[in-house]
Amino acid sequence: xxxxxNGECRNIGEGATVLSxxxxxxxxxxxxxxxxxxxxxxxxxxxSTELAEGDxxxxxxxxxxx
Length: 66
Hints:
By secondary structure, the protein is mainly beta. The protein has one helix at residues 18-24; strands at residues 2-5, 8-11, 32-36, 39-41, 56-61.
């Protein structure tokens, strides 16, 4: 199925979750914020939030600096 991730089309398998998407991109779930269809996804829900055809996902990573 096709979803948009940060504005780019991506094909993912059926039953994919926010957590599996983050793992596919090698992103640590502790350092990201994820929005699905303009709604923030709680970190506690990453593993149970299934993605659907046409979803719009925005992933923001936090980077420390000084």
